[in-house]
Design goal:
CATH topology of the largest domain in chain B: Rossmann fold
CATH superfamily of the largest domain in chain B: P-loop containing nucleotide triphosphate hydrolases
Oligomer: heterodimer
Largest sheet of chain A: none
Largest sheet of chain B: 6 strands, mixed
Distance between the termini of chain B: 46 Å
CATH class of the largest domain in chain B: Alpha Beta
Strand order of the largest sheet of chain B: 5-6-7-3-8-9
Distance between the termini of chain A: 74 Å
Number of domains of chain B: 3
Structural class of chain A: mainly alpha
Number of strands of chain B: 13
Shape of chain B: globular
Order of helices and strands of chain B: EEEHEHEHHHEHEHEEHEEEEH
Structural class of chain B: alpha/beta
Order of helices and strands of chain A: HHHHHHHHHHHHHHH
Number of domains of chain A: 2
Number of helices of chain B: 9
Shape of chain A: elongated
Largest interface: A-B, 28 and 37 residues
Bound molecules: adenosine-5'-triphosphate, magnesium ion, zinc ion
Strand content of chain A: under 5%
Chain lengths: 266, 293
């Protein structure tokens, strides 16, 4: 080549400020001339950005399988990061839930009225999970997390969701596998008491440690079942009667309102 | 609350915190601004309690408190404080199966730090600052005690806090890392307010423009290290014989005794006793009236 692009022409081509004709002829020249290609100014900011992206891809730790699952389910990346950091007892609770539900299932198929055990345990499964989800003593990094902007009701509610999703799924599956399940009521009769007790636990958490609140509510549940059994002619399954369900629904609505108010003003 | 602090400082008036009937803080008055302030006091003096109150981790039982110009008792303002706060608790603990990078990333999310790439860049910067970048993929259960301490510090530094509260930050650090820590904190303190509790008096001497001494929940000294030393001048001696029992003293390597004589206590003249220039530690011991042997 006998001629080359001037510095000015190269600069205008690279920064997209040349007019169309000049740009086309510059481009035609550049495809043939390696000398001018080498003189083409590089976009430092663009390079730096691409380099930072590349560095982050190479250098960031692989997200855990759980995080990948959660993002695949459509959760935002930072929510997945928050949920992957679960308190120590979360996995133990999940494992215990699977074992207990499997045992109640096996029993239900073996003995008459075996579903009674399932009816008594299913409503407390989410309660136990939530009681172990937040606070000093159950969360090793609590002292670090408790003074961050995310601490408090926001993190607690997020973790409650992380408990409710598997708990409700597992209990529903177990209920469907019970012998002779035909109606919707037989599948989800435990749901309202379970949710009401979780809401009760969260509401009580305002005044006491969450695991203590869980203990109080769980104790109340046991007491209720015992009273129903001891009362003459009362079946413990009365706590799931249509009338009782209306009561659970009312309690749930009231407690949810209390919690919402607390989150708003907390 | 009527008290307000400057936007980058802390103000407390008559701060009280009780546990049951025990008054861990018993009327603390405090004004903090940019720079490093050291918090000294014997075990149980209330240092951790004070730091936790300032860090919005504990609610004060009584008194007025304003942190970064905001009221920690109001939820919305508390969250604002937390956005610009770095807190290293005493004995921090972590998720053992996390990597150092993973833990800081989690903390950065909790501190609402930007999009993923900016957050990751910030985590890398924090790891470099405490010299743990080469350990970014190490699981926390495999870290040494000092490294864990440094990781806690890195977590506190995320988000360029305006207020940094450090509870015994240099515990377990080797001398090299301790120097690095001092350098880092001095640099941060140009713009931020740093309050650090410690039993390491050398750290205070090297780092702090100001010292607070707590005793049974009360501030018994608030001033410069030089002013604390000045109080001890003329009360520190070295001598050949052991002094009376009601005077703090200890045996030195050469067999002589270093003696701290509190005000109003008589130390019988012994021939070869010589006055010596007090160290900050001598001054601190004299102030808190350390229990004689
Ligand atoms: N959670 C608690 N419950 C009851 N009492 C507590 C609690 N935390 C601290 N205290 C008491 O409050 C007082 C002050 O404790 P604090 O932890 O603030 O002391 P400190 O100055 O940090 O001591 P150290 O140098 O040992 O860390 C002590 O008497 C302690 O026993
Ligand atoms: Mg302490
Ligand atoms: Zn050319």
């Amino acid at each position: 080549m006998s001629w080359h692009l001037t510095h000015d022409q190269l600069h205008r081509y690279a920064t997209h400020t040349a007019d169309d004709v000049t740009a086309m002829s510059a481009e035609a020249h550049l495809t043939h001339c390696s000398h001018c290609r080498d003189r083409l100014p590089t976009d430092e900011a663009w390079l730096e950005r691409s380099w930072a992206d590349l560095r982050d891809i190479v250098d960031r730790p692989r997200p855990s399988p759980l995080e990948r699952l959660l993002t695949a389910l459509g959760l935002r990346e930072h929510t997945a990061t928050l949920l992957a950091a679960t308190p120590t007892l979360y996995r133990a609770w999940l494992a215990a839930t699977v074992i207990v539900l499997a045992a109640t299932l096996a029993l239900a198929h073996e003995i008459p009225r075996g579903t009674l055990l399932f009816a008594c345990t299913a409503p407390v499964v989410p309660l136990v999970g939530v009681a172990l989800a937040y606070g000093r003593g159950v969360d090793p990094a609590h002292s670090l997390a408790s003074v961050t902007p995310w601490a408090g009701p926001r993190l607690l509610l997020l973790r409650t969701c992380a408990v409710l999703a598997p708990a409700l799924t597992l209990c529903t599956i177990a209920a469907l596998l019970m012998p002779a399940v035909t109606t919707v009521h037989e599948t989800v009769f435990w749901l309202l008491p379970a949710l009401a007790m979780v809401a009760g636990c969260l509401a009580l958490g305002r005044w006491m440690h969450l695991s203590m609140a869980g203990g109080v509510i769980g104790g109340g549940w046991l007491l209720l079942l015992t009273v129903c059994t001891l009362l003459d002619g009362t079946d413990p399954l009365q706590v799931f009667s249509p009338l009782a369900q209306a009561g659970w629904a009312t309690a749930l609505a009231l407690l949810a309102a209390v919690i919402a108010l607390r989150v708003r003003t907390a | 609350m009527t008290t307000t602090s400057p936007r980058n400082g802390v103000r407390a008036r008559g701060l009280v915190r009780t546990y049951g009937t025990r008054r861990a803080l018993d009327g603390v008055d405090l004004d903090l601004g940019p720079g490093v302030t050291g918090l000294l006091g014997r075990n149980g003096a209330g240092k951790t309690t004070l730091l936790r109150c300032l860090a919005t981790d504990l609610e004060a039982t009584d008194g007025e408190l304003s942190v970064l110009g905001r009221d920690p008792e109001r939820a919305a303002e508390r969250t604002e404080i937390r956005r610009r706060l770095g807190y290293l608790p005493q004995n921090p603990s972590f998720y053992p199966h996390f990597t150092t990078f993973g833990l800081l990333d989690y903390m950065a999310v909790l501190k609402e730090r930007g999009g993923r790439r900016e957050r990751h860049d910030e985590v890398r910067r924090a790891l470099r600052r405490v010299d743990l970048y080469d350990r970014r993929h190490t699981r926390l259960r495999r870290l040494s005690g000092g490294m864990r301490q440094r990781l806690g510090l890195a977590a506190a530094l995320l988000g360029d806090p305006h207020l940094l509260l450090l509870d015994e930050p240099t515990i377990g650090l080797d001398p090299e890392q301790r120097i690095r820590f001092r350098d880092l904190v001095s640099e941060l303190a140009v713009h931020s307010t740093v309050l650090l509790s410690t039993h390491q008096i050398e750290d205070v001497a090297a780092l702090c423009r100001r010292v607070l001494v707590l005793d049974q929940g009360r501030v018994i000294f608030d001033g410069t290290p030089a002013a604390l030393i000045a109080r001890a001048r003329g009360r520190v001696w070295e001598q050949g014989t052991r002094p009376p029992r009601n005077v703090t003293s200890w045996r030195l390597a050469d067999g002589r005794h270093r003696v701290l004589v509190p005000e109003g206590v008589h130390n019988p003249d012994s021939d070869e006793r010589v006055p010596v220039e007090p160290s900050l530690e001598d001054a601190y011991l004299l102030l808190t009236g350390a229990v004689p042997r």
